[in-house]
Design goal:
The chain has 164 residues and is mainly alpha-helical. Helix content is 57%, strand content 7%. It has a three-stranded antiparallel β-sheet.
């Protein structure tokens, strides 16, 4: 008989262990563990990205552009899971730093395309050290990191489905 993975809405939440008296304890919350981890990642990235002159959100935008080449702002926002109110000032700062160029699409004047400049492309080489620094700082093996990423992607998909 094939096993069926229950959908988030079908999963029964198990009660906390008997020795737990309060389900609202901060240290029992997965969301807080993820939040604390995200803040620790931010501090680690800040240290590694300082020499590149990038913030973590700017680094993410640059990684998307290094991977995909030119991108419409809307698509970049989808990839980064950022709304235009957050993405626009980030892109303005990258443009002011000479790393990207914004240009209206000739096919659709409403669409803005983000292009890497020569300086933006050149930043890729020194940025290639960053993932290795983070991997070393995390203390995870490659396999552990891959499994954690897989589980977090699954968690994100389940939460996105729940939120609609």
């Amino acid at each position: 008989m094939a096993s069926v993975t229950p959908q988030p809405q079908d999963r029964q939440q198990t009660p906390p262990p008997a020795d737990t008296t309060d389900g609202l304890q901060l240290d029992l919350q997965v969301c807080f563990a993820v939040h604390a981890t995200a803040r620790a990642f931010d501090r680690a990235y800040r240290r590694l990205l300082a020499e590149l002159g990038l913030t973590y959100p700017q680094y993410l935008a640059m990684m998307a552009l290094w991977e995909h080449g030119e991108l419409p702002v809307k698509r970049l926002g989808e990839l980064l899971r950022l709304d235009s109110g957050t993405l626009s000032p980030l892109l303005k700062r990258l443009e002011a730093a000479g790393l990207v160029r914004r240009e209206r699409s000739p096919q659709d004047e409403r669409s803005v395309i983000i292009h890497l400049t020569a300086e933006g492309r050149a930043l890729r080489s020194p940025a290639e050290r960053v993932p290795y620094g983070i991997a070393a700082a995390s203390g995870l093996t490659h396999a552990e990191g891959a499994e954690l990423r897989r589980r977090l992607e699954e968690l994100t998909a389940n939460l996105d489905e729940f939120a609609g």
